[in-house]
Amino acid sequence: MARKRTIFSAALCGCALAAPSKVPSLLADRRLTAALALRGGSAAPSPAPPCLAALWDFDGTLCQSEDVHRKSFSAVLGVELSEQHWTDACIGRAPRDIMEAHLPAGRLKPGETIDDLLRRRAELFEEHIAAGRLEATPGAVALVRELRAAGLRCAVVSSGSRGYIEKALAALGLVDAFDFIIAGDDPDCAQHKPQPWPYLEAARRLGLQPAQCVAFEDSLSGIRSAQGAGLRVVGVRCAANGGCEVAPAEAATLAASPLAAGAPLLPLLALVDDFARLDRVLLGLPAAAPAAAAA
């Protein structure tokens, strides 16, 4: 993998600093602690079940669309949302939540509603798609096709709006690659990320246990949602998740217990900026898969 797997610091592992002669033993303790942390702290690690499905976040994961969203919200709200503010306060949130949290007093005209602003905001994003400027995350399209060819099922699990997601998948040539979409504006969307419901619902629709699915996410709220449902997570590197730990090799194939509410995030399976560099073995695929070899 492109990014060397990291091991928890002594403080995170609860290990005291050791004399040089005890370093090998300390490293072993750290690896065991990290392995147990990945699966929720049980003293009896068990292997993860085979990966049968890949659940994809859309914005920032399948596509690098966050800056387009930031600009479209800024245009509709009439307020400039800085890149840092977008990273800290908006990534991973549902469009309605973002709109309501940033709506200036007096912005709505007589007879105008939040829904009107959301439609205009979606239109701006769809114009970006129609102009052919949609940017897929490097290696994402190839990985989706590779997963489908290997027999894994795929679904989109997003806080975004169904309309633009469907248009984006069509532009990417991936309409038939996904079994279904769970979108933040679906009438039956009971909860949004960071609640685990979206991923639990996706696993339910697939007829699988959450542990049989791997999530692909970028935002902290999305990672928390997936881990709260009991999924292992591959992260797409961004400013928001730079502090996330990556599981050591000893822990990558162990089952994970659902993340408790309010608990620190568990280590990720991987953190990549190009899916061509993702170790396919983590997903149960051959190490020399075509997309990986192309890297």
UniProtKB/TrEMBL annotation:
Superkingdom of source: Eukaryota
InterPro entries per the UniProt record, alphabetical: Beta-PGM-like, HAD-like_sf, HAD-SF_hydro_IA, HAD_2, HAD_sf, PGP-like_dom2
One Pfam family per UniProt: HAD_2
Signal peptide range: 1-18
CDD domains assigned: HAD_BPGM-like
Gene3D superfamilies from the UniProt entry: HAD superfamily/HAD-like, Putative phosphatase, domain 2
Keyword terms, alphabetized: Carbohydrate metabolism, Magnesium, Metal-binding, Signal
Cofactor: Mg(2+)
One GO molecular-function entry: catalytic activity
PANTHER family, A to Z: 6-PHOSPHOGLUCONATE PHOSPHATASE (PTHR46193), HEXITOL PHOSPHATASE B (PTHR46193:SF18)
Entry protein name: Uncharacterized protein
